[in-house]
Every structure is written in structure tokens, then in C-alpha cells.
Amino acid sequence: MTPVDPQIRAAVMQQAQGAVALQVAFIAVADGLFEALAAGPLDTAHLAAAAALDPGYVIRWADAAYAFEYLDEVEG
Questions:
Q1: What is the CB neighbour count within 10 angstroms for residue 24?
Q2: What are the C-alpha distances in Å from 41 to residues 7, 45, 46?
Q3: Nearest Cα to 58, choosing from 27, 20, 35?
């Protein structure tokens, strides 16, 4: 097996992270999460209720959105 060039590996990883960040943002737009958050900060339970989504799904999305700096943590 031929070793992968570190520059190519870094470029592929950066592109993959960009694709995942775009998917997280798309989910928020498609499911109305950003729209629900526009009214003010919500915890994940209230966000799930406002968007009529499963709370577990919203928790997982919020973790990813926080990792990509789409969300900030307010008061824990």
C-alpha cells in the first residue's frame, strides 16, 4: 500500500469537514431550527418542541452545531 501524501490527506480532511458543516447547516434550515432560534435562546427540549422534532435528534444536532460554532452555549 502506498503512503498517502500528508498534504493530500490534509486537503481531503478539510474538505470533508466543510461538507459536514454544510450538512449541519442544511439540517437547521430544512427543519426550521435556525428559524425557531431566531426568536431567542432555547434549550434543546424547547427547541425540539418549537420545531416539532424528536428531542434526541435535536440534542445530536445541537452537539454538531456547537462543534461547528453555529451555536453558543448560554447559561449551561
A1: 20
A2: 40, 12, 9
A3: 27
Distance of CA 55 to the CA centre of its chain: 15
Q: How far apart are CA 2 and CA 4, in angstroms?
A: 6
Q: Mention every residue, 6+ apart, whose C-beta is less than 8 A from residue 41.
A: 74
pLDDT tens string 42-66: 999 999 999 999 999 999 999 999 9
pTM of the model: 0.81
Q: Using CA atoms in the order 10, 11, 15, 21, what is the torsion angle rounded to 10 degrees? A: 40
